[in-house]
């Protein structure tokens, strides 16, 4: 028997098959188009492998309460065709004897980083990805952290930088964290795509201000042992030090944390945190049986 | 044997003795002066009672990591004489055979509300007090929520109301939540003490905007089953509905919650949440032995 992982993103679905020791047998990336075509391609990929368990880390927001009819569904998303799509139900119909583990892509990534990445040996961490959007996954006491919903820290409100008048890009909240600091805000403010902006551009200080502030708020609320940054933003190697400095300045000595160079770090599994977490979740479900 | 509770506030120490069924035998309030005088009065009050366990919910920030030398201490506080004072060590020296449970005043209050108040039957809640300062306690999976520190949500940053130019009162962060919305900001903005302001004053809408926004951020981060408001602000009965409306407006439909009238409520144990939580924590420690 094998285990599977599906990191379900709005652009692509990373799918991996591993043996019970977590050694990857085959991995692919499937473009996210319509649900029907995408799922058909996913089932084709996994067809040769009998699957004992599959971990799915999905873009969200998603329904996570097994008592509600929305469980296993993608909820409000701008991604055409995916609103209210029943991912878990569709997988279950195809794989009736396979254990399914269902969480957010960022929760899976946080779990991957905790077990095999930047937070190894810790019991808690928050993983924040900054790219097209901003999302955060939370692990606490070694397990995924979810409540009446999963964390949606990307949409929390932040204090504006005094010099910032940008309206923000979030269709729900305009100037929440994602609206002010995700990738599209870089191009929205400057007319230049993030990857083409020089390291010396002042906008990086502004983005570091918001991300550092969000990490202060996370620390004052969740007090995790470790904060991990991933996503497209980590393609800017100069940014981590700016974010660490912005965190220290805005925390203003209020809560003791480990030294900031240890406390806030980049992902240790670049672009693999999510799929690694999905496979780990599947592997553990199997070992519980 | 008896159990004790100490709700240690910056103004007064509420002390209570109860029997093992939680029936209160004697309760008092001792003014918070110097540590030596205050502790002497506390020991006098409890002297007639052999104490199996005492729950202490303290003003903070406090040291909660048993591995660190600051455990049991009050940390950075503006309260003269109490900085770095070793509360737990002093109690332990006086009561060597008594079990001590040590947490924040707001964590104790959250626990009291969960077990016997507004969140009865739930596994998780956040209790936020708005008075001289703003603090929040968190219960999750039926237990106190703490990480590398205890929650300090009162000092998280918030988005300013577009019409608000007030500098804020927080000595650390100026315009964090506490700086913009705690009691002193009411008088600071208007020159009138909060309790003397008419219900129709526009400042209540501003305060509701910030508190409602903080509850949005808490929901998107911790996703608790229930939010409970207490403290001096709840002496303004008109304010709860304003806060609920501000929450709904700023959440903008992003995360599903229970109906706001159920989700956000006032304390069910006015001015007793904290001491009740302290006694409950002591009672449970006893029953574990």
From TrEMBL, chains A, B:
Molecular functions (GO terms): ATP binding; fructokinase activity; metal ion binding
Matches recorded under InterPro entries: ATPase_NBD, Carb_Metab_Reg_Kinase/Isom, ROK, ROK_cs
Class in the EC hierarchy, top level: transferase
Reactions mediated catalytically: D-fructose + ATP = D-fructose 6-phosphate + ADP + H(+)
A UniProt-annotated Pfam family: ROK
EC code(s) of this entry: 2.7.1.4
PROSITE patterns, A to Z: ROK (PS01125)
Cofactor(s) needed: Mg(2+)
Gene3D superfamilies: 3.30.420.40
Keywords of this entry: ATP-binding, Carbohydrate metabolism, Kinase, Magnesium, Metal-binding, Nucleotide-binding, Transferase, Zinc
Family to which the UniProt record says this protein belongs: Belongs to the ROK (NagC/XylR) family.
Name of protein: Fructokinase
Taxonomic classification: Bacteria, Bacillati, Bacillota, Bacilli, Lactobacillales
